[in-house]
Amino acid sequence: MNIRQIPRISLRDFDTRRCQIGKELIEAAENVGFFILVDQQRPSKQEIEEMFALSTKYFALPDQIKARYPFIREQNSGWEKNAQIRPSTGVADPKESLQLQYFRRNKYWPNDLSDIPQFHQMCLQFMESSQDLSMKILSFFAVALGFPPSFFSEAHDLSFEDCLSTMRLLRYHDVTGKVSEMPEWRAGAHTDFDVLTLLFQETGGDGLEVCPGREAHTSFALGDKWTAVPARTGEITVNIGDMLMAWSDDRFKSLYHRVKAPGPNGNLKARNSIAYFNQPRPQVRIEGPTGKYGALTASQYISSAMERYYRPTKGPE
Ligand SMILES: O=C(O)CCC(=O)C(=O)O
Ligand SMILES: [Fe+2]
Questions:
Q1: CA torsion angle 210 152 131 217 (round to 10)
Q2: Mutational test site, ligand 1, from 208, 238, 258, 274, max ligand atoms within 8 Å of CB
Q3: What is the rounded CA–CA span in Å between residue 25 and residue 277?
């Protein structure tokens, strides 16, 4: 398979067009694994712009302040800078990021940012609207797999104390004057280990590329045919993660993706993105309808994936 086009799916008039939207989502999940949502009600373009403005303010804070909540691997929470070494490249992504897990919001989020007092509240709201949209999408996938429509909403219920869904604010460094010293990739090739990722990009921040052709969630399938995914503020790039590929017995595809660094004539300014990773509650059993793979709990799946994903991660700098 050699995709040249990432499907664009309009969510306009969601309630009256449910059937058509569901068909398009399932087709995109089966045949591609990446798609772009447009015309969604929430998170609205304005909410997304406000979130990017908040993220820019956060990353502009001095490193000593951000380092008060350092990345802790066991908790998949906190701030890192130049510390995530992707196994595919062996070098650290030139970026900084902050991971916020919904259920750890009281202890592990920066709740003391005097320059950005609205930080906690805005992140919370953005996660909640990302959650609602994710569950709408996942209800179609649940039915397609023969599960009840609420199957994934129950597995990802944010009202429980332990739901692992995570938002990640990302900022890839400004490379003005430094192009020749920078690694080729802003984010090295990887798959996401969650169930479903919503990725928010900003116009001007191109570089995301995907590699089609992965047949099993256990395989690497790193080909050499990469397709660019355009970055436009207000649209939402969605991709299937490894856990959903496993849960669907490999029917829905979790693709390798990466972020290419700009060349000398590209946009050298910092690139922001925001990811919302849907991860189920730890004791949920991941087992597909045909039983192709043995059942694992989400907690077991995430621990082994974190090991692969972050194996060589350095401590915070
Ligand atoms: O920044 C991007 O566009 C992609 C980020 C990503 O793939 C990730 O954090 O898993
Ligand atoms: Fe990713």
A1: -20
A2: 208
A3: 18
- C-alpha–C-alpha distance, residues 282 and 271, integer Å: 33
Domains and CATH numbers, the chain: 8-281 (2.60.120.330)
**Is 167 a pocket residue for ligand 1 (Cβ < 6 Å)?**
no
Splitting the chain (317 residues) into consecutive groups of 10 residues, what average pLDDT does each group show?
79 98 98 97 98 98 97 91 88 94 93 94 98 98 98 96 94 91 89 97 96 79 83 98 96 95 93 98 96 93 80 46
Model pTM above 0.90? yes
* Residue 239 near residue 33, CB atoms below 8 Å: yes
Residue 232 to residue 209: CA distance in whole angstroms: 14
How many angstroms is it from 187 CA to the middle of ligand 1?
7
Furthest-apart CA pair in the chain: how many Å?
A: 54
Ligand 1 pocket check for 76: Cβ under 6 Å: no
User: What H or E segment, with its residue span, contains residue 297?
Assistant: strand 296-297
Count Cα atoms within 13 angstroms, Cβ side, for 131: 22
User: Identity (one letter) of the amino acid at 73?
Assistant: R
Burial category of 264 from C-beta neighbours within 10 Å (exposed 0-12, middle 13-18, buried 19 and up): exposed
